[in-house]
Amino acid sequence: MINLILLFPILACFIIFLFKNKNLSNMMITLYAIIHLVTSGLIGLGIIPELSQNKFFAIDNLNKIFLIVLSIVYMAVAIYNNEYMKNENINKLRHYAYAVLLFIFSMTGAILSTNLGIMWIFIEGTTLASAYLIYFHKTKHSIEAAWKYVFICSIGIALAFVGIILLTVATGNLSSLYWADLYKNAHLFNPFWLKMAFVFIMFGIGTKMGLAPVHFWLPDAHAEAPSPISALLSATLLNSAFLMILNVFKITILAGCDGYARLMLSVMGFLSLFIAAVFVYHINNYKRMLAYSSVENMGILAIGTALGGNAMIAVILHLIGHSFIKASFFLTSGNILKIYDTKKIKSITGLMITDKKTGWLWLLSFIGITALPPSVLFISEFLTIKTMLEKWSYILPIIFLILLTIILYGIGKAVLSMSFGNEKINVNRQDFDNRMYVPQFVLIILAFILGLYIPQDFSNIIYNAVIGF
Predict the structure, then answer these.
(1) Is the dihedral of CA 412, 349, 221, 6 positive or negative?
(2) According to the model, what pLDDT value does residue 281 have?
(3) What are phi and psi for residue 409, nearest 5 degrees?
(4) Residues 64 and 466: beta-carbon distance below 8 Å
(5) What is the mean pLDDT of residues 357-362?
(6) Beta-carbon neighbour count of residue 357 at 10 Å?
(7) Residue 340: its H or E element
(8) For the chain, what is the mean pLDDT?
């Protein structure tokens, strides 16, 4: 089954190349989304575990969650994409399809990799595959964003490669980069070189994850990419990078030198919250606003990981909730862009009058991403703060809450001003197909259901995933 979801996009690209058909490009993106969702669902439920393992790619308790989240978000994006991209010319759409298929392929390979080196290769592959998607509109700003993305992420990948070299030094005579071997022999590693390796990998892959102070590509890339791609970048790419950091962090725990790693995670986490609070407060581009919200949420994941214990349960819940809600937010921003033809917050008003469905999606996404009940992010942030009070001083939880409040105010001010008020006269009123509404509603409903009720089987999956952290 792993072979199926890894080989199909290559085959699909070849078919698109042979048969130059506009509908075929969209069909292959959607077909891959269906195959990906069905396969990951069957693997996640444990129905076909014997068919889902090989030497280089395998399912474990942790990456199972990342794979399912990727599948659900990709399925939502694929449905939305069919309507969103229908007016593009055939050549642009074919190139777009190549890049999307290879982008999902690279993220899937990174998530399922059993080897640190292979995972590094696939994460580099995500950069190459998604660069064209950021440049897709071929404007001055989009080419600047694409070059910044490639340049900064390439530096990050290079730093991560140095970290891998340092890790091999720390392992001594092990001569293996398979996660199982690294975990098994972690207690024998040289602590100094292991700490140095974590520094380079944390900064390098932290670039892809969007953690401050190495997040600079993220606001520009999200602002310029088509909305379906912005959804994938924020809701799935950042998760893939985070998984690599989690795996390396687990090595430091098993080696007994995780104190330094936890300090790095917490510092970068709080810095991410601070950066997001500063920029969101005065921002005038709603897609950049959502990008800084992603920086904030990656910071929360880093802080929760640094805390460990029950906060790791919060990390998994937060990762799932953020992925669903942020994908909904970015897809809805695509509707707004088509209606108003601007990304400026001040130029948009009366959304609830102009397009009530889009207006409600915009408001519900805001409720979800700011952790207001019944969003699952309310539970995750509550657990994070609770663990913070138990393990750290009272000062850090207070700073945490203040920064979250500033971000909530900044996003809320923008969302409410866009949603209400008088309808603008010069708007491009459109009767969107339901495919540009339903995916967002489904994602929000899933995030809200998890905020009200978590099934026992799903709780067991989360508990198994965080064992060892």
Answers:
(1) positive
(2) 86
(3) -65, -45
(4) no
(5) 94
(6) 17
(7) helix 310-340
(8) 91
